[in-house]
């Protein structure tokens, strides 16, 4: 097992990514780093809740004030959050700009957004992929340690005073991989009792045909994907308008169900593809899983060890 000191020593290298840190998070009391590791080519049990379902939160659920906002801390290591002692109070990763997966220096065009999802169940073990609905988006994410999410005013109260939430993200300048930090949450100050509609899988829609209404998170790059990804670097699943997500509170999720665009056959709404063909590197082994020989990349920083990025592939 790595010591915390060793993990911190590794941070300035390519081993830098981002996670959500809060006492309500699953694995909040882990080694302070593993929580941020991106997920690629994993089995369902390995990626769902980052494999941390058994590592129950010790803190109270995160409060989500209906019609208000919640500020979460996103960082490449717990040490840089208010729960550690090495941060500057504003930077998500003071030691490694590569952790943002958005170029060096950070290129605003490579900031892809992140989202918060909620399931109206009180036991994380009961939550299924199709239960999560994205209720808030911050399209300027990840840049800052403290990231603000607006909470829809119509969010109803949670059953038994507790819901299950998760934070989702992916980078642009990175291999095909996704991030998920699960946490307990609780809607406070609720005035509406209308439930969130049944969330549908999002679709790439830069050319039109966006899924409207409640949407599931983007599950991809691992087993059980719910979205169709073309494999095009610039069409990666992302929490912005390219995939039908607008910045801020998702106020269109109480519609009692999504309304798929009429121009698309229903079969496309529910089709699933295996991503293994677009991520041949998943099978290759190296120190940084998912970033081995053959993995998609934009810069050398996206590739493990001494591998370089050549022709958008690590080699
Ligand atoms: C969740 O919020 C409701 C409404 O404010 C409150 O009554 C309940 O005690 C909260 N649950 C927890 C676990 O704090």
UniProtKB/TrEMBL annotation:
Signal peptide (UniProt feature, chain positions): 1-16
Cofactor (UniProt): Cu(2+)
InterPro entries: LPMO_AA14
Gene3D superfamilies: 2.70.50.70
Pfam families named among the record's database cross-references: LPMO_AA14
Location, primary (coarse class): secreted
Keywords, ordered alphabetically: Copper, Disulfide bond, Glycoprotein, Metal-binding, Monooxygenase, Oxidoreductase, Secreted, Signal
UniProt family annotation: Belongs to the polysaccharide monooxygenase AA14 family.
Designated name of the protein: Uncharacterized protein
Organism listed in the record: Discina gigas
């Amino acid at each position: 097992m790595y010591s915390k000191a060793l993990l911190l020593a590794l941070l300035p290298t390519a081993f830098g990514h981002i996670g959500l840190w809060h006492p309500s998070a699953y694995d909040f009391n882990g080694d302070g780093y593993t929580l941020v590791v991106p997920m690629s080519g994993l089995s369902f049990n390995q990626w769902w809740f980052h494999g941390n379902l058994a590592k129950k939160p010790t803190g109270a659920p995160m409060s989500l004030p209906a019609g208000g906002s919640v500020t979460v801390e996103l960082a490449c290591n717990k040490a840089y959050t208010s729960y550690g002692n090495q941060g500057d109070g504003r930077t998500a990763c003071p030691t490694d700009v590569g952790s943002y997966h958005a170029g060096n220096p950070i290129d605003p065009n490579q900031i892809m957004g992140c989202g918060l999802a909620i399931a109206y169940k009180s036991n994380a073990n009961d939550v299924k992929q199709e239960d999560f609905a994205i209720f808030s988006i911050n399209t300027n994410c990840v840049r800052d340690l403290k990231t603000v999410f607006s909470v829809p005013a119509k969010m109803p109260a949670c059953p038994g005073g507790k819901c299950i939430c998760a934070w989702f993200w992916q980078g642009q300048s990175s291999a095909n991989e996704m991030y998920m930090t699960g946490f307990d949450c609780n809607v406070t100050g609720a005035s509406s009792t209308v439930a969130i509609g049944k969330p549908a899988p999002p679709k790439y829609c830069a050319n039109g045909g966006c899924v409207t209404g409640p949407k599931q998170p983007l599950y991809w790059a691992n087993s059980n994907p719910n979205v169709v990804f073309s494999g095009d670097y610039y069409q990666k699943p992302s929490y912005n308008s390219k995939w039908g997500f607008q910045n801020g509170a998702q106020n269109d999720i109480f519609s009692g169900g999504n309304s798929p665009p009429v121009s698309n056959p229903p079969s496309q709404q529910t089709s699933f593809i295996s991503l293994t063909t677009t991520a041949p590197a998943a099978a290759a082994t190296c120190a940084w899983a998912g970033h081995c020989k053959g993995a998609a990349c934009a810069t050398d920083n996206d590739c493990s060890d001494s591998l370089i990025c050549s022709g958008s592939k690590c080699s």
